[in-house]
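Margin note from the TA: students keep mixing up input and output lines. Inputs are the sequences; the output is the structure of the whole complex. Example:
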Amino acid sequence: MSTLTSVSGFPRIGQNRELKKIIEGYWKGANDLAAVKATAAELRAKHWKLQQNAGIDLIPSNDFSYFDQLLDTAILLNVIPKRYERLAFENQEDTLFSMARGYQGDKGDVTALPMKKWFTTNYHYIVPELESSEGIKLNSTKPFDEFNEAKALGVLTKPVLIGPYTFLKLARGANAQKLEYDKGLVNAVAAVYAEVLGKFNELGAQWLQLDEPYLVLDKEPGDVELFKSLYTKILAAKAGVKVLLNTYFGHIADIYETVNLLGFDGIGLDLNEGREENLEAVSKYGVASETTIFAGVINGRNIWRNNYATSLGLVDAIKQVTANVAVSTASSLLHVPFSTEGETGIPAEDLKHFAFAVEKLDELKEVAVLADATEDEKKASAALAANQALFDGTRVAADPAVAERVAGLTADDFVRQPAREERQKLQREALGLPLLPTTTIGSFPQSKEVRAERAKLRKGEITKEAYDEFIKAQIDACIKHQEEIGLDVLVHGEFERNDMVEYFGQNLNGFLFTKNAWVQSYGTRCVKPPIVWGDVSRAKPITVEWSAYAQSRTEHVMKGMLTGPVTILNWSWPREDITHEEQTKQLALAIRDEVLDLEAAGIKVIQIDEAALREKLPLRKSDWHVKYLDWAVPAFRLVHSAVKPTTQIHTHMCYSEFNDIIRDIDAMDADVISFEASRGDLVVLDAIHDAHFETEAGPGVYDIHSPRIPSEQEIEDRIYEILKKMNVEKVWINPDCGLKTRGNAETWPSLEHLVAAAKAVRAKL
Ligand code: GLN
Ligand code: ZN
């Protein structure tokens, strides 16, 4: 039998973001739900057919979602908090959207469920909230409907679900409490999965894929037992359908022995991330005779061509242990763009090095064919020869000046003087700010008009001068508005930027850009990361003119706004021929030049966003420092170490899940940090308190991802919660990040409430 090919999941937003557009249209009232459903069905059909035509054997279904697959899983299990159910929508889709985005209207007023990053990706999932295990039951026909839909189109799919272990590990109780995995809960959840398995058996499915990425994390006491008891129950219900236990983003060496004994028909292993450990576990514990190893060889998280020789070597390594090997994508392809087709802006010479989702399908098929080929057939294979040619020789032009500068760095370049406490005192005097100073994270709503003007500039329909005048007018209006509502530290609004990473990439040497390589970030939000293609350096000042202009228009302190090196790298497609550490150092030097130029231009407060620093923290604790923080934190210090003591350096981070690395965040040696907090719980405040955190901090006081407007009282309450844990002298008041994605209609009233709340609290101090 020839080697089976399996795709873990496929991007669902659409080649031209069709799903985004139709859903956002629905939210705005421009089209109805029927139109959303029609587009969704078209996209699913197209994606299934693409995979079928590429010769993929196990094509996923139920990898589609209107918002997020973990939210779908919660709804499938009827894990829907009462406050959303009480809104009593007619359609399950509206309930889903209210959980994902909050709701404010004639049916009621509820905030959204928290959102968190999906492992080490920039994809965000909705955190399920489980009020009690009593209501758990099979509550949706979505997986079955999609299976039947594909079947009617002539595609027998492999349904995909997030598994019960990962679901339970990511879910929270009411008030963000940790769940107790008691017997009632475990049985209830296992029973639903068993029922699902039974239904798919009736429907004629051959494989069911259960994704358990949480298995690649360190185990807490009880985890292995939890996993075992869930799956013992589920697998007991197994009839004809084969069950593939799929893992990704790391290795499962610490539980492989248990998994192997449970009797799965397939075990999916990531052979990119966690390669050595996974291979070692397989050879140490063997593979049960009825089990097929799904070798995850096609990277689901990069955009580079697969190296066939490497993949074939990995398949061979598994074949030393078992003959039952299938080849698979290492993770879902959700995290890569759709296709390189149409990327005419990138020279063909460069583009041939890239493989997005569609191209990865062909790679998967070719690897499977080659895995079955004899040595002679391989020698004669044009596909293998063409692939080999891509990896022979260097493909990236090095810049010796960059290498030299990096090599010349000394320990002093990473240390800012004087000590922070002294700086903070000097800054307080120099800046003359009140207690609880108010500010925002940088961007303001990017209206249609702003985006239209940028498009016109790109197409050459307006001159650069006309565009600059337009942006200046936007900045003027934004400053005026901020002054009117009484914010303390102003921002220029980031109107000139399409995106906080792409904008910098475009102004640095060493990057390539795509037209349409969008990747889903959360819900309908997509990002288009640039590609690091060569050594990085700054060609000329990037933001200085804009910040200086903005400062010239106000008496208030104007905050300069930059993106930090770790974030630029994490939100780009990095090179694979040199280390991330090396690339980050190059970026840090480029941004350091920009910081010093801003300072020289009279900017007294400079924010260097490290929005994505937390995101790439390795999943295993033992890797945290050696594989990441030991170079990521110094890279940030390198960026700002040469500024004057009175220049205030801010940083910003998305998501406040850094209780465990709070000291590392402090070690970045920024003067102030703002972070996104309003959708998460505030345990980070305990960590700040306990660690004697020195950096001044602004935990976001309201959620900007939701269209609802917080009341002044709500924000005041929030501030008091913060003051319970933090010294008032260290507290800043700001919203969460990303105002760019909101409309003016909700932004300004919300900020008015924020300023009023800060003033009210100040008055009572
Ligand atoms: N300065 C950016 C903004 O305000 C930060 C965005 C982010 O945190 N992702 O939009
Ligand atoms: Zn952020």
